[in-house]
């Protein structure tokens, strides 16, 4: 793209919102990279200011915009991709270096649509991913990883969050090296975080030993809020991991905090007996294998 083919203001707005086809996104990305950094930042800042709060990624979180006069540093190239941390059916998580604050963060990026994936299924997955960013950002608790920012990577929805180090509770319990009193204390801290979410009207719906991270210095984190929903939601989705779901999650019941209470009881049972709360045909009833990820 030459100088006389400068993208329009509408295209730059779509670029900022991650709403362009991948090929066009990459073309504009190369054009911006060839510009002086100050020019590129100015153009992106101007386009970003035009985005209404309910459009694209800007609509993920209800936010009226920064205080007048504030401008984020290096908005286009602030985060440099790093190492792959993990991948699931919905998203891929990698490290990234924040060049401004000189810290390592985690970037979670929605997986692209698979060739055999129905378009409706992909849109449901994208909606769940965006909901996860919005819900997690609204839950400010020491045991819930904070979301730093939302954006896009190669045209795909993405969000930046705290980089965590630790072991899944499943591995800690499987190792059998933690005293029972400490295991129960960990679950109590999980219950406190879940209770906070319930006070904000949010139900996790997928509490398993694999979705709880035991970190250093006594820290515990409740992860993977992609299946979370507001209490009372009746979406007809069978959401959760079979061996850890409350019985009513097998059907179209409305989302209820008691679903999480059942899972917390299951975590307590697991700490005491190493068994999951419900048998599942796909795995033994006890935790010598990782729980099945229903997603």
Describe this structure in words.
The chain is of the alpha+beta class. Helix content is 33%, strand content 18%. It has seven helices and ten strands. It has helices spanning 9-17, 22-33, 37-49, 119-137, 169-175, 180-199, 257-273, and strands at 79-87, 91-98, 103-110, 147-153, 156-162, 166-168, 202-203, 212-215, 220-222, 229-230. The strands form three sheets. It has a five-stranded antiparallel beta sheet, covered by helices on one side. Strands 6-8-9 form a three-stranded antiparallel beta sheet. A two-stranded antiparallel ribbon has the order 7-10. The chain starts with 8 loop residues before the first helix and ends in a 22-residue tail after the last helix.
Summarize the structure.
With 295 residues, the chain is of the alpha+beta class. The chain has helices spanning 9-17, 22-33, 37-49, 119-137, 169-175, 180-199, 257-273; strands at residues 79-87, 91-98, 103-110, 147-153, 156-162, 166-168, 202-203, 212-215, 220-222, 229-230.
